[in-house]
Amino acid sequence: MSTRVTIGVDAHVLTGKYQGTRSTLTNLLRALGGRPDPPRLLVYTEDPATARAAIGVAAFDYVALPALGAVRRLLDFPRLFRRDGVTIGVFQYIAPLAGRHAVFVHDILPLTHPRYFPLAMRVRMRVFGALAIRRARVVLAVSEHTRAAVLARYRLPPERVRAVLNGPSFAPPAYAGARPATPRYILNVGRIERRKNVGLLIAAFRKADLADVRLVIVGAVDAGFAFAPPCDPRIDLRSRVAEAELIGLYRGASLFVYPSAAEGFGLPLLDATLFGIPTIASNRTALPEVSGDLVRYFDPEAADAVTTLAAQIAGHFGASPIPAPDAAQRRAQAERFCWTRAADAFLAAIDAR
Q1: Per the count of CB atoms within 10 A, which of 21, 102, 184, 323 is most buried?
Q2: What structural domains does the chain harbor?
Q3: 200 phi and psi, to 5 degrees?
Q4: Closest to 286 in 3D by CA, of 109, 151, 125, 168
Q5: How far is it, in rounded angstroms, from Cα 138 to Cα 145?
Q6: Mind listing the pLDDT tens digit for each residue in 288-304?
Q7: Span 309-336, average pLDDT
Q8: In sequence order, what E strands does the chain have?
């Protein structure tokens, strides 16, 4: 990478709510900082001390963002970048109208699957997301599925849209030593919103009617989404779970189910395969790219989706267990989806801008 390049990263998501953008940026920055020749990089955040502790890379500069709100913050970035000698800015989805930038696009689901998103989010993606994508020196997509969706919608030259595949949520040692717990439980992880199909999973779990199996759902309910689990002692909804507890839940799960109707990547699904958990997943969007032939699929939008998923769940705990990924398959997953490769792909994309 050219030594003349100084990268400025809009990292306000690092101190916001937990979501895929936060996990992706945190892990990518750690991998960039762990290189023998880390790039010249400035991390712009409202809380530099917290961001520095989360990333753990002393080689980066952590720059305080003024508390201006989302719109004024974006408008202020060109001034900040000129002040600090930044060559190219890196943003999530939406970027300033001035200056040279790369934009991370985790998905364009508000446009391809609008029924799952509120009007404001659809308009924001249609107007401001489109402007950022069309103006970007390079678009960074977290999956080949998202890259293909961006290319199809915006008709950009293929070299301007690069895949920077996500890596896992946890450090490699976390994925060793998984052993199903007793009593047995099914695990689901992710934000709870309409497209995640948590209600479908609950309906299928109850239809499977397994008296000695619990369902553990880990995730916070999105604002504006009306959701409440049924009064069933076998269903355990948890939010604000610490990393160590979440790793323990993955390690002890007898089955992982990821019924989401639409994903730009699907980090929890990748994690489940790396932990070696037997898994059932939706066959939609990026999920087959992430899990390949390691999981059992179903169509969450089919008329008989609840019945099909219930049968798969019951079969796993009965006469038709779903095989877990073996050691060789898990190694192949870890090699394909790793943050070191993501950092290489990111720097190659920036250097080719």
Answers
A1: 102
A2: 6-167+338-351 (3.40.50.2000), 172-335 (3.40.50.2000)
A3: -65, -45
A4: 109
A5: 17
A6: 999 999 999 999 999 99
A7: 97
A8: 6-10, 40-45, 61-64, 88-92, 101-105, 138-141, 161-163, 184-189, 213-218, 235-238, 255-258, 279-282, 296-298
Closest CA to 142 of 353, 337, 347: 337
Question: By the 8 A CB rule, do 192 and 225 touch?
Answer: yes
| Token pair belonging to 109 | 């689901």
> Residue 140: which of 17, 268, 132, 86 has the closest Cα?
132
Sequence-distant (≥ 6) Cβ neighbours of residue 144 within 8 angstroms: 163, 165, 286, 289
Is-contact 193 219, C-beta < 8 A?
A: no
Q: Which residues contact 59 (CB under 8 A, 6 or more apart)?
A: 33, 38, 41
Q: Indicate yes or no: pTM above 0.85.
A: yes
Written in H, E and C, the secondary structure of 62-90 is: EEECCCCCHHHHHHHHHHHHHHHCCCEEE
Q: Please state, rounded to an integer, the average pLDDT across all residues of the chain.
A: 93
Q: Two tokens at 110?
A: 């508000």
Cis peptide, bond prior to residue 183, ω within 30 of zero:
yes
Vertex 67: Cα angle to 65 and 73 (nearest 5) = 65
CA distances from 176 to 23, 76, 148, 276 (A): 21, 45, 34, 9
Polymer length of the chain: 353
- Token pair, residue 168, equals 């896992």
